[in-house]
Batch of 4 targets.
Target 1
Amino acid sequence: AASAMVWKPCPPGTWSDATGLKAASECSDCPLGHFCPEASGEPKECPFGVMGNAPRLADATCAGSCPRGRYCPAGSVDDGQPCPEGTFNPNVGGTSSEACLDCPLGDFCAAPGTVDPQPCAAGYLGEAVGQTISTCSRKCPIGHYCEEKSTAPTPCPAGTFGADEGLTELG
């Protein structure tokens, strides 16, 4: 009696578009940036906001959410792109450069991939978004003082004067 052929699907994390395979070892590993559910005839691109930085991924969660400070376009084969200097991303799962927010007033974001903005140094002003250095926009003007994270200079009180730029506190 002839025995019936038993078809077995390619296992999760592998794929094949060929017919007549004899063993699971003939299925191809799912490539980076893609996932392959059981019985895949072709790899599927990892979606926006997740990493595809491992082979043999089996579902759309791929290798997990894109980390903070970065964004992951569809099909990412690494841990995503860092947000550029002057921006930050405090959230996981960024899908495009729009996930990168301008560094806020009074803060600076020096390095690519910034997660937490840092305050502008005392004696300096952070009058514009997107600053990349601790001295931010400019030195505090004469006749004023600027504490850490200042977005506007504070005038020296009546009866006092500030003869220098960059004063950091009321003296």
Target 2
Amino acid sequence: QVSTPRPPNSACTVVITTPDRTLADRLNVPREQHISLNPLPTDRALTLLGRIVGAERVAANPEAADKVVDYVGRLPLALRIVGALVNLDNQTLHQMEILLREERTRLNRLILDQNDRDGNVRVCFELAISRLSVELRQFMSAISICAPAGFSLNAAAAVTALAEENTRIWL
């Protein structure tokens, strides 16, 4: 828990990392000081995976490494968990790629610790989703049935039963 992000009368910088996108607002951190992180570029994701499992393992099977990185969305937490699992179970990246191949069971594979959000991607997602308004959760649930490659504003409005202007705002 962080109650005051800046020490009083200090010229130092404080960095707070959190999956909670509302924390900075609650701590009255000015918006221009917020930094949101996107998924890693593929090359950096592969480098991170290599640092965890060993660069030689990534180099030995680059196709499997590429797929693993893609399967976990190039997310640092998921890459850390995958790397730890590969090391703990003494798996090859090809074996991990096979385990992650099935999208429906992928989140169940990305668990180091069942109850720790730092070791469980599903817990992180559930925490983030729980902080959304009921309306936004319903909206996200409705558009999740749209094509993964994309969908039109009209299609999103149709599946969410919202007017196009309201749909445009939520997207």
Target 3
Amino acid sequence: TDANELEIDSDDDPWTDLFVPARRALNDAHVPESGRFMIVGADVEDWLLTQDESFRRADAQGQDALDLLHNAILGRKAGFTVVGGVDTIDPGVAYALHPSAFAYVTGAPANPRGAKASAAASYKGVAMRVLYDYDADHLTDRSVLSTFAGFQSVEDEREQEPDHGVEGNRA
């Protein structure tokens, strides 16, 4: 297994067997403490809800906790916002992450010269172009929204141990 992967049994304790090692791994990687998330698959979510009282009792914590549950946020633990209900990942996995590990970039396409009118704008980091023209095939005005978008994980370069050896030959 990968050095950052944990094997967890259903009898394990979520605090000592999931949250503490995940926190340590992010601390060792110098990941900022604020804004950390843990995304959990369905089986891990079930395990947390049955093994950890703090997640089971969220319904008794008032309206704020109910709002969190409606947004698939199970709660906060060890500095992580724990998000369940994620059906796009393997049910048996959990990912500890930080938003700074991902780059999302958008760009508005150039305004075409043949369009009746067009404009580009950006709002909350999303750039978009709107194009207004006449659709002769359907005898109607139309507006078209378009953007270019890219998403990539960002990994810091790992420092390598300095080479203290001497290379070359001495005469």
Target 4
Amino acid sequence: PPAPPALAGAHPLGADHGSVIAELVRSGVGNLPKGQGEAGVAIGLTRGQTLRSIQLPQALIAMLPALVSQLVVVLKDTALGQIITYPELLRAAQILGTAFGNTLQTLTVAAVIFIVINYALTALAQWLSRFLSGRTAGATAAGPGIGTPTAGAGGPPEDAPAPATERCRPRR
């Protein structure tokens, strides 16, 4: 028997967006300084405990704006479910508009609802990015987030004294 429409729409979208979110988590943890994991192992935690207790909480702060942006994409992709008769906002607007004979007005309201939700989620992602950028290690070449600060992007000023390793090198 064919799959119910809800399952036929939710399964592929869930698999697709689940893989994107898994990659976000993997890259968020991968961008942490190596010493974070080593510190957890040094105090006697297993690798799994280190990941759950030390690395994931730090990585989630850095990945939160990207996760909210992915939520915007999920919201937009649910409109694809209308093609396979999964009832969602657009399909409900079409049915309602057809029933009362005012399809254009109903679809306009649905479009405004989509725009407002997407704008609110995008604004939330941007606010989170600005808010959380001060809670991580500083700006990196790729933007705010966890990593080694770069010069000119939150790193040491240009006229700061050279690190000790550079001061001790013999001149040629």
